[in-house]
Specification:
The complex is a heterodimer of chains A (324) and B (317). Chain A is an alpha/beta fold and 324 residues long. Chain A is built from 12 helices and 10 strands. Chain A has one domain: Ribonucleoside hydrolase-like (Inosine-uridine Nucleoside N-ribohydrolase, Chain A), CATH 3.90.245. In chain A, helix 1 links the parallel strand 1 and strand 2. In chain A, helix 1 packs parallel to helix 11 and helix 4 packs across helix 5. Chain B is globular, with a radius of gyration of 18 Å. In chain B, 57% of the residues are buried. Chain B is built from 12 helices and 12 strands. The longest helix of chain B has 22 residues. Chain B has a single domain, classed as Ribonucleoside hydrolase-like (Inosine-uridine Nucleoside N-ribohydrolase, Chain A, Alpha-Beta Complex). Helices cover 39% and strands 19% of the residues of chain B. In chain B, helix 9 packs antiparallel against helix 10. Classes of the chains: A alpha/beta (324), B alpha/beta (317).
Chain lengths: 324, 317
């Protein structure tokens, strides 16, 4: 089977740990490169984390450090929900060293053109790198087959009452990407995690992961950090004793890998830029009151069991690699 | 029986407002001191006429005072081709208001705000305001009579939404009509119960419910059935579901029986300058930085809601 060419753009927090495991483990992609952006990891650390994860995945591709700040807004205060302290507990003997010397927006464009319109983008952080790529190369969208984005919230946010962190961190970049004319934008908002999560039984399966699996301790560390930050579940406060392990980036990796495994709604999506208190909020015109021209395919729902099966199928591939 | 709760109803009298007023007057727990009117579903003159007609239908003697014809800032709109006219009919009463006789008994006052102040000052106990339309009258009251908030026990309002709007992506109709007024009210320090779309959209009647009202409610039930027919059809065109959503009965229902709603204290403020989010009631459920200022309704028990209305119609037989 021909592998799908993929460029990853990420802020390399704990959520991306799961996403990297899935995207590499599923065997569907030929990963061309990992561009990093400010966000979950402190400046300078994102690329180091990415290179470390790349090596665990056994991927051969460059890591390209990118934007350190948003296009316009200056944010202070909102901590990244994923964080990355769980990653920093490990001895990250990183192979990162400004490998290509190329800027991420130039790298993305070059790879997209080389792919003959088959390249896909997978974005799990603020969209600043992609926005700069679009601004620099207006024809970029025609070379990208699909862009899958972990961003936005149709209900409660995780940066403010309504804003999701990746959009909140650079709302203008998000707007720029929405308006760029990409052929297909698959948007995975926070609420999609309500159906793409792991439960108590899955936690036991995770704990039983083969000791030789390189992800075993890393995933456990990420889970400990998640529970410490958000409690057993982060979505359902009325059921505090029920585990709902969800990682936004992992849910997006699932949508990226098996786009047919979800129900979705084609919907016109807006982002608030002007408001003092709602900046970075994504709004979805589900009722088609504003326009009949949807600009994204919004992931709505998937089978939780299908997500969990995918997750563990990917995780087990690392057992096999170890055996080999 | 414990003392009845004195209330003033501020309404932009359309179909669902008529249900709310009927429900309030039927309850032995509430003492309706008066009705004030405003623009919203219909123009204020129509709203006022409707209020008088409904009171006469219900055989209730109460004064009605006409209030604001438009928002605090900006222009009033033309009502002939609005969502309100589509839903509530051009007369605001499901296009059957003409079947009610011309009113003869009820006094009309021309200054809703002074009238509210007078009623509140006169009442021995603190008064609850029930807001069913844009908050223009109540905001004006709070500005013009700064000390009056001490005499107000709370405001039970139909308006706002936590997640999505019905007029704008994030804006509910009563807040969209006058966001600045809503902000004044929310920031006033008065106890507020916000019955927004999360609860109000569950406050609906199906055709069988309406048939029941017609059978048990005498002439009142028959009029409400007729009034709801076009409303039901218009709701179906808007939402795809054959339901008559009776938004405005929700705050009244809560006053009668709080168990009808699931509420949570939140901090709420109105977005006044967003491009897409203007008029959104921005609701911080976790109150991370600020103290809660509003009890927000997140869910409604429809069984209780329907039964309350059945009981109410029985009292009008």
């Amino acid at each position: 089977m021909t592998k799908r060419p993929l460029i990853i753009d990420t802020d390399t927090g704990c959520g991306f740990v799961h996403a990297a495991m899935l995207v590499s483990g599923c065997g569907l992609f030929e990963i061309q490169g990992i561009c990093t952006v400010f966000g979950s990891a402190p400046a300078g650390e994102a690329a180091v984390h990415a290179a470390w994860l790349r090596d665990i995945c056994g991927i051969e591709c460059p890591v390209i450090p990118g934007a350190q700040r948003p296009l316009l807004v200056r944010r202070g205060g909102a901590a990244a929900p994923d964080g990355c302290s769980a990653i920093e507990q490990f001895d990250r003997e990183s192979t990162f060293s400004a490998e290509t010397g190329e800027l991420p927006w130039e790298f993305i464009y070059r790879k997209a053109v080389e792919s003959d319109g088959e390249a896909e983008l997978f974005c799990t952080g603020p969209l600043t790198n992609i926005a700069i790529a679009v601004i620099r190369h207006r024809d970029l969208p025609k070379y990208i087959k699909r862009i899958t984005i972990a961003a936005g919230a149709s209900k409660a946010g995780n940066a403010t009452a309504y804003a999701e962190y990746n959009v909140y961190s650079d709302p203008h970049a998000f707007k720029c990407v929405l308006d760029a004319g990409f052929r297909q934008i698959d948007l995975v908002d926070l609420q999609f995690c309500g159906s793409a999560y792991l439960d108590d039984a899955d936690a036991e399966r995770l704990a039983g992961t083969a000791g030789s699996n390189p992800w075993k301790d890393i995933l456990a560390s990420c889970e400990r950090e998640r529970v410490a930050r958000f409690g057993l579940n982060g979505l359902l406060p009325e059921n505090e004793d029920v585990r709902r392990t969800f990682w936004h980036d992992a849910a997006a990796a699932f949508v990226l890998s098996i786009p047919a495994a979800i129900s979705a709604s084609n919907v016109y999506t807006m982002v608030e830029l002007r408001s003092d208190i709602s900046s970075g909020r994504t709004l979805f015109d589900f009722g088609r009151r504003f326009t009949d021209d949807p600009n994204v395919r919004l992931a709505i729902y998937t089978s939780r069991d299908m997500f969990a099966d995918f997750y563990f199928r990917c995780l087990r591939t690392y057992d096999r690699r170890d055996a080999e | 029986m414990s003392q009845r709760i004195p209330v003033i109803i501020d309404t932009d009298m359309g179909v669902d407002d008529a249900y709310a007023v009927m429900l309030a007057f039927s309850s032995p727990l509430l003492k309706v001191l008066g009705i004030t009117t405003s623009y919203g579903n219909v123009a204020v003159d129509t709203s006022t006429l409707n209020a008088i007609k409904i009171l006469e239908l219900l055989e209730k003697r109460a004064r009605v005072a006409k209030g604001a014809s438009g928002p605090l800032f900006g222009k009033s709109r033309n009502y002939s081709n609005t969502r309100g006219a589509f839903l509530h009919g051009k007369d605001g009463l499901g296009n059957v208001g003409y079947t009610l006789p011309d009113p003869v008994h009820i006094e009309v006052d021309s200054d809703a705000v002074s009238y509210m102040a007078e009623l509140i000052e006169k009442e021995e106990t603190r008064v609850t305001l029930i807001s069913l339309g844009p908050l223009t009258n109540i905001a004006t009251l709070l500005i013009a009579y700064p000390d009056i908030r001490k005499r107000i026990d709370g405001i039970a309002m139909m308006g706002g939404s936590v997640y999505g709007g019905n007029m704008l992506p994030a804006g509910e109709a009563n807040i969209v009509a006058d966001p600045e007024a809503a902000q004044i009210v929310l920031q006033s320090g008065v106890r507020i119960v916000m019955c927004g779309l999360e609860s109000a959209e569950k406050a609906y009647f199906i055709k069988d419910d309406l048939e029941m009202f017609r059978l048990i409610g005498g002439s009142v039930g028959r009029f409400y059935y007729d009034m709801s027919r076009d409303y039901l059809a218009a709701n179906e065109k808007l939402t795809g579901e054959r339901r008559a959503v009776i938004y405005d009965s929700v705050p009244v229902a809560w006053l009668i029986n709080p168990a009808v709603l699931r509420t949570k204290p939140c901090y709420v403020e109105v977005d006044l300058n967003g491009q897409y989010t203007r008029a959104c009631t921005v609701t911080d459920e976790n109150c991370t930085d600020r103290r809660p200022n509003t009890m927000v309704a997140f869910d409604l028990d429809r069984d209780i809601f329907v039964k309350m209305h059945i009981d109410a119609f029985r009292r009008y037989r």
